[in-house]
Amino acid sequence: xxxxxxxxxxxxxxxxxxxxxxxxxxxxxxxxxxxxxxxxxxxxxxxxxxxxxxxxxxxxxxxxxxxxxxxxxxxxxxxxxxxxxxxxxxxxxxxxxxxxxxxxxxxxxxxxxxxxxxxxxxxxxxxxxxxxxxxxxxxxxxxxxxxxxxxxxxxxxxxxxxxxxxxxxxxxxxxxxxxxxxxxxxxxxx
Length: 190
Hints:
This protein is an alpha/beta fold.
């Protein structure tokens, strides 16, 4: 069965964005891009909330075609255009969307159906609201967190309204030169 892995940059105090959605505090560089690119390249499905999907859709389809495109832009644009996209939204319709599935209701049943299909792990990119919904229904199987060396003090937290403890098992860690630390957890359902 496929797993849903939440991929997030996070502040040391647990925020995934500033109070107004700011992400200018996130540290990324070629070392991180190369590392993340290898893992993402193994996947075939991306899961987004509506806001993140629209942000991605406005950039990635053509990012690799730009004359000033970086290696990361070229590689991720190719991957993005091949990957199946799943979007959690109550307002979007999927009539004209290529290689995209919209889930607007029956979240648990719809996600579990996708998990049963053949394929690789499903990477949940950013999307704090979608992540909160999936956490509340116990649908996330792992957390791939990139802890940035900053304390924001306030913002959009990764974990809210947790009803039951979520036990995790640490799979890997990695320290990057820029000070970001990767923490890769699987949810321990036993």
